[in-house]
Amino acid sequence: MLQALSWAALGTGFTFLMTTLGAAVVFFFVEEPRPQFQRTMLGFAAGVMTAASVWSLLLPAIEQSADFGVPGWLPAAAGLLLGVGFLSALDAVLPHLRRAKDMDLTRRQSTLLMAAITLHNVPEGMAVGLAFALAAEGEGMAGAAALALGIGIQNLPEGAAISLPLRQEGSSRGRAFLLGTLSGSVEPIFGILVVLVAAGVRPLMPWLLSFAAGAMLYVVVEELVPQAHSKAGTCGFVGGFLIMMILDVALG
């Protein structure tokens, strides 16, 4: 058990580090990003999250469902709806952020964005933790390493997708970096927890993956796409979608 926990901590620690590196991009800006750059980054974040919802979450959820004798569409559809419902409820309980001022709208958007990406990181951390726990027992070390590498590379733009909008809304570089980093801290936490309760959690993975996908898609449609609506935002969306799609397909 100790060896499995150590390997899980190592694998999820790497993915957490990559989120931290992505969030650190805020330190390379001398001044607050301009509105056009903000729209580009919001579009980029929307593209990343859309592609990640399909290739990183929904498709794996459908594939994993077969291992438990469940129709692939069931956890994918039900989990997605639950994720949308959860983020919709979270949106509704933030009335103090529902103001007419642009700053308040941006803060509300950033709150939902961070919540969605943090939720997305939970099943990813669990997947990496399980993979390395199995690798510690002599099963699939190469696969576990590839999974951690792929998720780690994907976490780079996700960390930036949180820290940059926070910086744009007026947060200090340190605060934007800290919150971007914290979004990835759930990966080692849940990666280690899943090893401790591995037998009971595996059947829930398809549902958790789909739940995270629904949460991300809610933010994309409700918040990011309307705010990014421009040629720059469209280019950012296409770029983010292509990058995440290529990483997911190439790195499995």
Structure notes:
With 252 residues, this protein is mainly α. It has one domain (2-23, 35-251). Helices cover 82% and strands 0% of the residues. α5 runs antiparallel to α10. The longest helix is centred in the middle third of the chain and has 35 residues, at 102-136. It is globular. The two termini are 27 Å apart. The chain crosses the membrane at residues 6-30, 42-62, 68-90, 176-198, 204-221, 233-251. This is ZIP family metal transporter.
Spatial gap, N to C terminus: 27 Å
Radius of gyration: 18 Å
Mean pLDDT: 80
Number of strands: 0
The helix content is over 70%
> Number of folding domains?
1
- Sheet-strand content, in percent, reads under 5%
Question: Brief overview, please?
Answer:
The chain has helices spanning 2-23, 35-65, 73-92, 102-136, 141-168, 173-182, 186-196, 198-201, 205-228, 231-251.
For the structure shown, list the relevant keywords.
single chain, 252 residues, mainly alpha, globular, zinc ion transmembrane transporter activity, cell membrane, ZIP, membrane, zinc
Describe how the helices and strands are arranged.
Blueprint: H1 2-23, H2 35-65, H3 73-92, H4 102-136, H5 141-168, H6 173-182, H7 186-196, H8 198-201, H9 205-228, H10 231-251
Helix pairs in contact: 1-4, 1-5, 1-6, 1-7, 2-3, 2-5, 2-9, 2-10, 3-9, 4-5, 4-7, 4-9, 5-6, 5-10
